[in-house]
Please model this.
Amino acid sequence: MENNEKYFKAWDSDSKVLASNGTYDWMLNHIRNYNTILEIGCGSGISTLKLLQDGHNVVVIEFNDFCINAAKDLLARNGYEDVVFIKWQISELNCRKLIERINSNIDLVICWNPGGAAALSSTEMQNKFSELLSLEYEINSIESFESAYAEDIIRSAFIIGDILNKDLHIIDRFYNEDIENMEYIKEHEYGYSDWLFDQITGPTNENTMRGLSNQIYYKSFLFTR
Ligand SMILES: C[S@@+](CC[C@H](N)C(=O)[O-])C[C@H]1O[C@@H](n2cnc3c(N)ncnc32)[C@H](O)[C@@H]1O
Model:
């Protein structure tokens, strides 16, 4: 089985837990005022379905074909046929180019539970590793590679939000309750005037986060203009 199929299956299983225990509902509660959402990374489509059922329009950016196909199937089975999917592997280096592909009026950019380094093939992983090093990320081990990979997606989300001049919602998962050491809270660099923070404890994503047994904190950051 290819890594991107394995990753899709692992996240499908993890995200069902988030759906059944109300974690997605908690996420949705923070963004009720926004109509059309640009979702970076749809997983197996459960988050996208939740957004649609909550009354939003959604445009998806996703690169993993297994995720795209499963999400389209799930949405179609629930009567949502017209969601726009943009196939794109986002990075800090290419996200400005992505803007040309977005034809809808977006009200909010979301980046929920970023990650997915494990979906890469070994060649893709080596290329990404070199790319991140060229961007001066500090990478000492595979685990920090995974978080550097997620950080690259978050930075891309900030850049897209900045170019579109829209608010940005990030949900990120941490082993620590503290928010002080979160490097990526640089809202002023990206023209955000304010941000709202919230967190809850939730399940460890045991298939996609290597079964680490620590408590996980789901942190919500809504950056506003
Ligand atoms: C952990 S899942 C989260 C999915 C969804 N946001 C949720 O909360 O259920 C991460 C998703 O981002 C996608 N992804 C990872 N890297 C990406 C990239 N560079 N560009 C676009 N999508 C990416 C993965 O394929 C996966 O679907």
